[in-house]
Amino acid sequence: MKKNIKTHAKLVGIIGHPIGHSWSPAIHQTAFKFTKQNYEYAAFDVLPKNLRDAVKGLLALGIVGCNVTVPHKEAVIDFLDEISADARLVGAVNTVYVENEMLVGHNTDVDGVVEALKPFKEQVANQPVTVFGAGGGARAVVYSLISYFKPSEIFIVNRDASRAELLKKFFADSQNYLNIRVDELHNLNEADAIAKSKLVVNATPVGMFPEVGESVMSDDSAEIEGKIFFDLVYNPVHTKFLKTARKKNAIIVSGLEMLYHQAAKAFELWTGTSMPLDKVRAHLDRKFMDESEPKQRKQKAQRSVAGEGQA
Fold first, then answer.
1. Distance (Å, rounded) from C-alpha 184 to C-alpha 229?
2. Choice among 10, 73, 150, 247 that is catalytic
3. HEC profile for the chain?
4. CA 257, 103, 99 angle in degrees (round to 5)?
5. 58, 132, 197, 272: which could form a disulfide with 63 (CB 3.0–4.6 Å)?
6. How far is CA 120 from CA 117, 156, 207, in A?
7. pLDDT higher for 193 or 226?
8. How far is the C-alpha of 14 from the C-alpha of 190, rounded, in Å?
């Protein structure tokens, strides 16, 4: 039986479309349980055409904050009263909190990227980096790289090169960072971009459940050994992108690292207290792994059965 939300609890949540894949509810509900705080976290599937009304409804319903996920991270800015300096420089918001009856936007994805890549800061400094994608996640990655890791050059690779060009211009104007190169994914020999880079980031939804057999990187990409591969996708925990890199002796960083750390910062903004991150991780790591891996095994089995029936 589904648990009912306590009527006297403070309500936070997440808005996006689709939303069923999100593991944020599990992370925050676990943190609230450990800290014995009277909050409840809900998921709201919001179509783009309804975003304005959904954001306006936060104050009317007494919701004290929310996460924002795809496809709303950029569009939501138009409906907020204020945004933080980081969110302004990124050009995207993934966390909203209420302060003095005003909706304030922040970007805790930046915190997630920085914490996930912190062990590799010296390796990335003054080295080329490749980022696949040009959406809200890619914006957070590029901003974090420029601000905290100082790569020598950033290659932005995207299906729509014009959108990547807009991102290049955005960071040239906002941060005077001029070392961004752009190419369209289908026109690029991605092996060449990877060979030139110390860090390779997938900031697209490619490879996310249920499309676990997809990857922005081909299986035969060469010169991977010793490089760092970071995937913002967290469901499954080990994407095809990461598995391909690991088979070729690369260093891999799961999107789960970023998810935990961005959640911890959002938790702090809403509650004014720190998330007990070590306890939350110890409680949820196995659950998340078990949830993502069986899906891949089931899909593989289905493909196998389907293959046996073909002429």
1. 20
2. 73
3. CCCCCCCCCEEEEEEECCCCCCCHHHHHHHHHHHHCCCEEEEEEECCHHHHHHHHHHHHHCCCCEEEECCCCCCHHHHHCCEECHHHHHHCCCCEEEEECCEEEEECCHHHHHHHHHHHHHHHHCCCEEEEECCCHHHHHHHHHHHHHHCCCEEEEEECCHHHHHHHHHHHHHHHCCCCEEEEEHHHCCHHHHHHHCCEEEECCCCCCCCCCCCCCCCCCCCCCCCCEEEECCCCCCCCHHHHHHHHCCCEEECHHHHHHHHHHHHHHHHHCCCCCHHHHHHHHHHHHHHHHHHHHHHHHHHHHHHHHCCC
4. 90
5. 58
6. 6, 20, 24
7. 226
8. 34
Domains, the chain, in order of start with CATH, read 10-107+259-276 (3.40.50.10860), 111-258 (3.40.50.720)
Residue burial 261-276, b: 16+ Cβ < 10 Å; e: rest:
bbbbbbbebbbeeebb
| Residues 6+ away with beta carbon under 8 Å from 231 | 201, 202, 207, 239, 241, 242, 252, 253, 254, 255
How many residues does the structure list for the chain?
A: 311
pTM, rounded to two decimals: 0.89
Residues 6+ apart with CB under 8 A from 221: 190, 191, 194, 244, 248
Active site residue 73: yes
How far apart are alpha carbons 115 and 120 in whole angstroms? 10
